[in-house]
């Protein structure tokens, strides 16, 4: 017994349904992935063109920036003093201690970190831990950021009491690293 395909309106409806199903499968399987790929490539091209324009603008500004940086250099005021890493580390400790005293706080501990070579400079680090009210801590960090020599604050860790117990004068436990630079010399300790 052979199965016959339907004829008439029922057959036309079945043929139309099969045709639409095949078209839908082709769309989902072939055409839509190609359209998505094309859109992704167009977006990547747009991003690269924006990056190219930004880099071109930076390159155009480079000679002016180099002129400005060479004319405004004041290395003596922005670098740590000291003929060795140990002396520079002690100088950095003294500066941070002075700034802390001016802010009205006493550090719990200060640990000098190992110095590292960074191009023509030696990076001197100091790990500081303290507990102070928030306004005092902010004043100290601002003083470190603005004071000579130029110093950077890194690796900040803050811990405050729970909200229910917190008052304006509640101490915040803080630990952070202060970094400064000194000129590198040929003989390093």
Number of helices: 4
* Biggest sheet strand line-up: 1-2-4-3
Arithmetic mean pLDDT: 87
Instruction: From the alpha carbons, calculate the radius of gyration and give it in angstroms.
Output: 33 Å
Number of strands: 4
Kindly describe this structure.
There is one protein chain. With 189 residues, the chain is an alpha+beta fold. Helix content is 52%, strand content 23%. A four-stranded antiparallel β-sheet has the order 1-2-4-3. A hairpin with a 2-residue loop joins β1 and β2. It is elongated, with a radius of gyration of 33 Å. The chain starts with 8 loop residues before the first helix and ends in a 6-residue tail after the last strand.
Summarize the structure.
The chain has 189 residues and is of the alpha+beta class. The protein is built from 4 helices and 4 strands.
Give descriptors for this structure.
189 residues; alpha+beta; four-stranded antiparallel beta sheet; 4 helices; 23% strand
What is this structure's SSE topology?
Layout: H1 9-71, H2 75-78, H3 85-103, E1 109-118, E2 121-133, H4 134-146, E3 152-159, E4 171-183
Helix pairs in contact: 3-4
